[in-house]
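Researcher: Let's do a round of design. I'm pasting the structure tokens now; please hold your answer until I've finished.
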């Protein structure tokens, strides 16, 4: 899988992830219903929410986007609801594999894209946490993931090979990666640039057997981004974030 190029040591990158994840919690207030994302950066957000509940009396409920986030949240004592029980959420905090100047995203490197998108769609606002390696001018350097019905993956792959300019790979190969929903993931080289993410999303979702695609277009309202020198909050001009 093509992905984010390395920059700095592992410890330096991990420190940036931690800074971004914790900084995002400045937008969290008591009484909120939160979408809790999946991934190595937003993990620090979940840890900080758990700390604030235990030490500061923060009162929130969360809707996890994966079984991994659910397990972590439960271990920290974060009250959880299903999306169906929660209804509209105040804020979703999640990570991203790439974000561009429009704050459109590629997500799905962690395999939770379907639940992540459903939770984000149910939220009043979406906040992304990332380090500066994830910022790009145009989406597409990161392989585009899509969740597919497991029994249909070969037919979907064949269709993707007709429209994708690069390789199409089954994640896990001979031992396919299985999502929390029981689906497979195809990683597709649509880059190095995706000129019209919205049009591509519509095209991919029209293919039988595709459950969801990791393009999040017009959904993100702000990004908390850690750089080696500072933590920045990039807010969409017409965004919904309070």
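Researcher: That's everything. Go ahead.
Model: Designed sequence:
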């Amino acid at each position: 899988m093509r992905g984010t190029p390395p920059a700095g040591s592992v410890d330096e990158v991990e420190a940036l992830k931690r800074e971004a994840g914790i900084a995002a919690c400045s937008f969290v207030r008591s009484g909120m219903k939160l979408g809790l994302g999946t991934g190595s950066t937003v993990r620090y957000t979940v840890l900080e929410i758990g700390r604030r509940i235990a030490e500061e009396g923060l009162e929130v409920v969360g809707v996890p986007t994966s079984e991994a986030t659910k397990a972590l949240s439960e271990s920290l004592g974060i009250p959880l609801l299903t999306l169906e029980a929660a209804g509209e959420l105040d804020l979703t905090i999640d990570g991203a594999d790439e974000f561009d100047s429009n704050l459109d995203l590629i997500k799905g490197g962690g395999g939770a894209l379907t639940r992540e998108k459903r939770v984000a769609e149910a939220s009043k606002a979406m906040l992304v946490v990332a380090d500066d390696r994830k910022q790009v001018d145009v989406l597409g350097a990161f392989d585009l993931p899509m969740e597919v019905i497991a029994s249909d993956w070969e037919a979907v792959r064949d269709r993707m090979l007709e429209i994708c300019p690069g390789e199409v790979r089954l994640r896990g190969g001979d031992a396919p990666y299985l999502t929390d929903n029981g689906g497979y993931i195809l990683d597709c080289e649509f880059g190095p640039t995706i000129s019209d993410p919205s049009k591509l999303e519509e095209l991919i979702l029209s293919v039988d057997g595709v459950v969801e695609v990791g393009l999040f277009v017009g959904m993100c309202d702000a990004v908390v981004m850690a750089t080696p020198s500072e933590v920045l909050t990039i807010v969409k001009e017409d965004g919904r974030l309070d």
